[in-house]
Inverse folding.
């Protein structure tokens, strides 16, 4: 039954990727859609009041526009979080956030990471949840989507990358808002609250008083998953019965996470006028995803061998930290999806996964190319595709070409820099954390598991994922500041570098295809691409994995 549940979700995902991918292509390519008679009026009104002009941008101006707009929004949200106690939508009397936590939270949500060092129901006012958090969930998702669109235009040969502000508006009004509205209604139908009422105080069956947290939950949950954001309204995130009450909402939220990243890859094939190329990238991502899912599901199904050795029954698998209403199958699938698609939402405690089960989400974030969040995962996989073409070109002794453009020294240097930044942002801060008093103070588990907690925190930050092992005591100046900086550099350095790669390729002449051209839209390329990703991932992260989850597994 578990395999059937998983297979059903994946079949629906592939089907939706095709239909939604066609729509995304039309949005990207500025083609007409059925809703234009409404959306055009909304967009034109926004352009008019904001002064946006549809002027073409090169990659430098596009990248600068991304950074400038994001910096402004980040500062606004920081101020909102620092003035919470004065908010009018604050029926529960939530106080102001500390400076270091406001810094971390503002950066976390503007970078589409949504790492939370606070509990949403007790740390944020309703105004902050809607005006700051939900707002950034839309804008950070739109920013990543815009970066991917500009990147696609560049590698497809367009010298001008479009206009960031026009793309930003179109993606928000034509994709994120309408899709979120539908998902919100589906979640409300299944019992997710959507209200501005204060907390309810009830008398329990033990004759004690208990506060039941409420709020505008469904709307946040919709964009949280659709925008691959991941920040929970409640501290328990998507394991909370108000965020994710039924197996149906669990499937809806998983499909929402997967929807746009998968559709974007299909839309790329349409934009390139080569569906086979889009399917080749899609296949490589899917195979990596299925390998990770298989490891996680089997590890959790088998359970903890140490418990089995002392005679404890694990007929249901490793159910520690999991919800009965989801079970092993939907918990394992959710774990793999939320880290492969870099969302960060969790429906089970990753800290309670078996060592090999916990290795899977960590590995997904270390690779950061298996579909990924809004656009960034796709850009990362294309980076590996360029490396693959370059290596294959060297093997046959000819100048490598990708999508009709020659790959030369400049592009390889930029791609190599982008590849190196990710492990640097994970491994160096992890090393600092385990040799400083401030870092060690947050570790709640000794030995191998404690190291995994630290590496996971920085992998989540660098990959803009936001999930955590949650055993880490991370609401301190050290962890708030260090993870904030990692999130910042992990987001914008990769975007700027890959836009530079696209700009370099766009400026080159198209090379006609010959018999000697290495094709990148067939099975051979897919297999080589997968091996290149795995080899580079192992070379950079295997020592950390051996000292963490692998060593912990061997001790059992």
């Amino acid at each position: 039954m578990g395999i059937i549940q998983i297979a059903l979700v994946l079949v629906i995902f592939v089907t939706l990727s095709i239909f939604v991918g066609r729509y995304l292509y039309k949005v990207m390519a500025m083609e007409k859609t059925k809703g234009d008679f409404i959306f055009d009026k909304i967009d034109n009104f926004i352009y008019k009041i904001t002064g946006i002009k549809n002027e073409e941008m090169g990659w430098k101006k596009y990248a600068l526009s991304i950074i400038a707009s994001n910096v402004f929004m980040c500062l606004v949200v920081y101020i909102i979080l620092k003035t919470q106690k004065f908010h009018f939508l604050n029926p529960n009397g939530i106080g102001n956030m500390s400076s270091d936590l406001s810094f971390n939270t503002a950066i976390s949500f503007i970078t589409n990471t949504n790492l939370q060092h606070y509990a949403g129901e007790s740390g944020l006012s309703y105004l902050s949840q809607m005006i700051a958090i939900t707002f950034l969930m839309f804008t950070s998702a739109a920013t990543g989507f815009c970066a991917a669109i500009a990147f696609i235009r560049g590698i497809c040969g367009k010298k001008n990358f479009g206009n960031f502000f026009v793309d930003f508006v179109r993606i928000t009004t034509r994709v994120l808002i309408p899709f979120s509205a539908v998902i919100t209604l589906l979640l409300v139908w299944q019992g997710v609250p959507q209200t501005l009422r204060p907390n309810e105080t009830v008398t329990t069956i033990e004759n004690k008083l208990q506060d039941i947290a409420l709020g505008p939950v469904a709307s946040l949950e919709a964009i949280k998953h659709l925008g691959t954001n991941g920040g929970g309204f409640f501290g328990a995130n998507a394991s909370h019965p108000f965020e994710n009450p039924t197996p149906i909402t669990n499937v809806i939220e998983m499909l929402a996470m997967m929807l746009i990243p998968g559709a974007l890859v299909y839309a790329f094939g349409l934009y390139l006028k080569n569906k086979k190329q889009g399917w080749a990238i899609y296949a490589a991502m899917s195979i990596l995803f299925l390998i990770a899912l298989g490891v996680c599901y089997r590890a959790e199904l088998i359970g903890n061998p140490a418990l089995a050795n002392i005679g404890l029954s694990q007929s249901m698998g490793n159910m520690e930290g999991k919800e009965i209403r989801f079970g092993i199958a939907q918990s394992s699938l959710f774990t793999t999806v939320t880290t492969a698609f870099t969302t960060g939402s969790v429906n089970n405690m990753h800290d309670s996964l078996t060592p090999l089960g916990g290795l899977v989400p960590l590995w997904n974030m270390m690779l950061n190319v298996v579909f990924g969040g809004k656009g960034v995962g796709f850009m990362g996989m294309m980076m590996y595709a360029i490396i693959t073409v370059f290596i294959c070109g060297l093997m046959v002794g000819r100048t490598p070409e990708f999508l009709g453009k020659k790959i030369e020294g400049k592009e390889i240097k930029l791609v190599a820099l982008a590849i190196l930044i990710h492990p640097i942002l994970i491994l160096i801060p992890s090393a600092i954390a385990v040799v400083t008093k401030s870092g060690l103070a947050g570790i709640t588990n000794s030995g191998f598991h404690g190291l995994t907690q630290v590496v996971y925190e920085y992998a989540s930050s660098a990959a803009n994922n936001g999930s955590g092992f949650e055993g880490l005591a991370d609401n301190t100046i050290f962890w708030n500041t260090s993870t904030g900086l990692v999130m910042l550099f992990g987001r914008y350095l990769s975007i700027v570098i890959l836009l530079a790669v696209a700009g370099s390729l766009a400026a080159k002449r198209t090379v006609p295809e010959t018999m000697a051209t290495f094709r990148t839209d067939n099975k051979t390329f897919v297999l080589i691409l997968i091996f290149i990703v795995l080899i580079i991932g192992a070379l950079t992260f295997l020592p950390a994995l051996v000292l963490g989850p692998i060593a912990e597994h061997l001790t059992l």
